[in-house]
Amino acid sequence: MTDKTPDDVFKIVKDEGVEFVDVRFCDLPGTMQHFTIPVSFFDESVFEDGLAFDGSSIRGFQSIHESDMLLLPDPVTARIDAFRAAKTLNLNFFVHDPFTLEPYSRDPRNVARKAENYLISTGIADTAYFGAEAEFYIFDSVSFDSRTNGSFYEVDAIAGWWNTGAPNEADGSPNRGYKVRPKGGYFPVAPVDHYVDLRDTMLRNLINAGFSLEKGHHEVGTGGRPRSTTSSTRCCTRPTTYSYTSTSSRTPRGRRARPSRSCPSRCSVTTARACTPTSRCGRTAAR
After folding, report:
1. Which of 191, 202, 257, 286 could form a disulfide with 178 if both were Cys (CB 3.0 to 4.6 A apart)?
2. Per-residue pLDDT tens for 32-49?
3. What PROSITE patterns is this protein classified in (predicted)?
4. Domain of 213, in residue numbers
5. CB neighbours of 275 closer than 8 A, spacing ≥ 6?
């Protein structure tokens, strides 16, 4: 992700004919939140004075009697949204106290920035690298309910071994029997790998979004479990961008990704969280 200045952001807005700016920030659990402003409202004052929002409505943030919070943009994160119908610039913001202007202690991006600055101050190193392996399942359907007289959850993926008796594939064609056996998804070629085209679309969109990806492949679990590996110093921003880009990608038939964290799995297969860090460490500056 190349460093940008506010002037660079305004140049993107002008050159790309941007209509809207999508204001994005993280809640305490790390889920990206957003609201949209028209480009006519996006000027230098946004970088100088910030944008206000109600912090009492965000998980883990403020009480109702002290709800006012302030957002200040991070120009480095500016990027055109590849999936919105209207030309939209996505821009991540840091959360600040509106009175003291101090970085907000419950903003995950501020916590990550503070940790990186502390690392630099110790003289141990000047850069922290994080290798993220994003893993998730792809379901053809997800349903769940919890009511007074009962509850249930059900997930389905046409590639799952439990669908060997299904009459049809996801596209309506006859079932050809190419299913991923339990713990057998690492990593046979098509036609057992049902999701290679979708995974290619995800990889292409992620590369276009500025990611440097090392690989993408099916993981051990049945039912469609892609994985791709990338590394970066901006660990707090990139997983949310990765999740948005991956789940917005789709095949011509409309199949989309579903992060595994959205539905707890009790299948007899290996389950992974949405993102698993791997060890990639090193020193980039001499003491």
Report:
1. 191
2. 999 999 999 999 999 999
3. GLNA_1, GS_BETA_GRASP
4. 131-278
5. 132, 133, 134, 135, 239, 242
